[in-house]
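User: Please fill in residues for this 211-position structure.
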């Protein structure tokens, strides 16, 4: 995987939800003729793996991804030495909280305190570790959870009676509203981050991730 020609690999997300990030990086590399960067597309949740693997093989790599996805990778790989080397604040007026936020969602017109102490929770499988840490906190306050993980359509588990509460990313909030859900708690607010080795900081291209 190492780049024998000395080029940097900049790994960008191919996820539709991170399209703005990918396009801005690719446009910068193309328009400004930055020959030292090779662009590699990967799913946002896999970017840390690619960056880590390229560096381990002797190459030079930087990744741009969601902070939530990197946090999950770090929790799964605590001994690996990748760091956030730059943070790009995510600002989008179309987003409910101006950025993606991992939330605990529950039925409208209720509060968490109104629900039973034993709950079924559907969780996006991209956020197992972050969710576990948060649910451990609630368990310390008397709650218990039957957990199951879904790779998509997580919010749909509520209106079909499969789950009592949901943990998933909220962006516009439209799908949560349509499923009869609202945000009870913010678990993790997500900006975009550049990841790599700390000493790679000065090699980052100057990009903006503001939508």
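Assistant: Residues filled in for all 211 positions:
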């Amino acid at each position: 995987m190492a780049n024998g020609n000395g080029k940097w690999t900049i790994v960008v997300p191919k996820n539709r939800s991170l399209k703005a990030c990918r396009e801005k990086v690719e446009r910068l590399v193309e328009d400004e003729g930055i020959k030292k960067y090779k662009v590699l597309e990967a799913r946002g949740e896999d970017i840390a793996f690619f960056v880590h693997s390229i560096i381990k093989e002797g190459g030079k790599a930087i990744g741009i991804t969601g902070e939530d996805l990197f946090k999950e990778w770090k929790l799964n790989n605590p001994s690996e030495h990748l760091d956030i080397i730059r943070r790009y604040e995510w600002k989008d007026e179309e987003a409910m909280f101006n950025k993606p936020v991992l939330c605990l969602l529950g039925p409208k017109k209720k509060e968490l305190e109104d629900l039973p102490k034993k709950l079924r929770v559907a969780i996006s499988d991209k956020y197992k570790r972050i969710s576990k840490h948060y649910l451990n906190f609630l368990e310390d306050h008397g709650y218990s959870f039957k957990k199951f993980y879904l790779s998509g359509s997580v919010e749909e588990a509520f209106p079909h009676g499969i789950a009592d509460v949901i943990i998933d990313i909220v962006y516009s909030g439209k799908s949560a509203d349509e499923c009869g859900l609202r945000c009870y708690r913010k678990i993790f607010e997500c900006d975009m981050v550049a990841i790599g080795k700390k000493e790679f900081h000065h090699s980052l291209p100057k990009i903006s991730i503001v939508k």
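For context: The chain is about 25% helix and 30% strand.
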